[in-house]
Amino acid sequence: MDNNSVYKTISNGDLRLMILSASHSILNRAGEVNDMNVFPVPDGDTGTNMSLTFSAAAESVIGLDDGAGAGEMLDTLAKAALRNARGNSGVILSQILRGIKQGMGDSEALDVAAVKRMACSARDTAYRAVMKPTEGTILTVIREIAEFAEQRFPEFEDVREFLKALLGAGEESLKRTPEILPVLKQAGVVDAGGCGVTVLLGGAVTALETGAAVPLEDETKTAETKTADKEDIDTANIKYSYCTEFLINKSASRSVTQFKASIKPKGDCMLVIDDEEIVKVHIHTNHPGFVIEQALKLGELTNLKIDNMKYQHNEIIGNTIKPESGADEEEEAEPPKKYGFAAVCSGSGMDELFRSLNCDVIVKGGQTMNPSTQELLDAAETVNAENIFILPNNKNIIMAAEQVNGLTEKNVIVIPTRSMPQGITALASFDEDASPEDNEIIMTETSEAVKCGQITYAARDSEADGFDITEGDIMGVIEGKVKVCGQDMEKVFFDTAKELVDDECGVISVYYGIDADKDEARRLTAALEKEYPDLDVSLNYGGQSVYFYIISAE
User: Fold this and answer.
1) Which residues is 302 bridged to in the sheet?
2) Which domains occur in the chain, in start order?
3) Cα 236 from Cα 240, distance rounded (Å)
4) Taking the CB of the first residue and of the last residue of the chain, which one, N or C, has fewer CB atoms within 10 A?
């Protein structure tokens, strides 16, 4: 590549390389972005969420034919990012990528003017996706990049120089985020999501300047990052052995509806997403050959993947397939029930609690690993019900859950639960005889009445919410704020409970985690009963990681 000549447009080959380079960059620096978490709780996950969202989308692009054009690549990137979006940062990133594709429009050449339009469209789409935009975040960084593009693009003819200037504008915006958002200044960090944007753009610029992608520092990094609180599926419960996935590049006149009808009796966990020219297919079946033959009637297949789940069965969604003794695999599927439930939770004890309340499917995840929109969509498709309630049980998963309804024909209702205790209360308040609309109101209102405190340790020295925090301190966190901090577990436990209990409180529930001592949990709960003799106090094994104790009051 001649760096002395004017580089007016980005070629298709360069765009593919830029996407790969951006993916490597965010994977390499995911841990660094995670460390920018405002609070010193050991659960910073912005880097993880953005890296998994983008790298999965980049894999879809790299899997396209070499002849794929810029429009097809950007369209694939945006759609795959939405399905793989994790956490709020991942969802916002998917909307930024969607805006980039929309901003391209019908342009055939990715020149300075096109890049300017793409930057502005990315800003507009990202802001529309957030109900209450907060400045000093990823939104500010993408907005100020777009503003620079609008104001300065006439000065540039070389698209490389323009992108370098946009990167510089993003980095300057990132430096200013602590001045806009006081909590960042207090913690001594810049915004993690904004940093992720500059890392991605930096990787893309490097590829365009050098003609080579940023090297992936650790080939195992992606696999390690994706590992999260997984449990093996009991292989005796696997009715359909082969997890079959592929993409169809449509070329035939046969309808996708016909295709879905033909393969539905052959398996379960079926997912067929029609995105205009491409159809995404996922099904658990004992007849992958039949499924493939039917798919070939629609068009060419790519990204074909068939796994025998009896040997490769560690999945994010655990134990979702129920055995039916003596059931014939060819028998007609049962009619859907009226209501079904999917919940995100972490810990074997929490898993059992949700199942005891008739939750159909558990999506493994939570604070340290936010499940993607695709995983939540898979969960919804697994449930044989007309109306499916999703309980995200974490504020950082709500946005990803809200994308599901637009990707399925089922009626998906998201109850915006921010903690597992809120999800438990929401399920307990469900009324089988009520309408979906009334249940949504009831479950939302009852869950919002649950106050939740979490006891954990400080992962690093920090200043937060008026506390000078030292690594290893015990903290009581309520609604994302550090309310109690000290070195004595018992004192922090009781002070946190005191913050939660008020005159309207009637029930206190304690859930102890995998790292908590069982005898200590019993002793602390017994002391709570003495402290609050008029309240109903219970102790449950949650098995959650990160938090020694979760205390809820309602």
Assistant:
1) 247
2) 12-226 (1.25.40.340), 239-312 (3.30.70.980), 337-448 (3.40.50.510), 451-553 (3.30.1180)
3) 11
4) N
